[in-house]
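Exercise 7. Given the encoded structure of a 27-residue chain, write a plausible sequence.
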């Protein structure tokens, strides 16, 4: 897998994690 693709996946995972955390906080 290319480095760029790994970076994109990491960014996506970070975005998803923060989104989930926000949703959890809102209950």
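Solution.
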């Amino acid at each position: 897998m290319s480095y760029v693709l790994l970076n994109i996946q990491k960014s996506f995972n970070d975005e998803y994690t923060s989104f989930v955390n926000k949703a959890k906080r809102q209950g």
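Remark. The mean pLDDT is 95. Students should compare their own answers with the one above.
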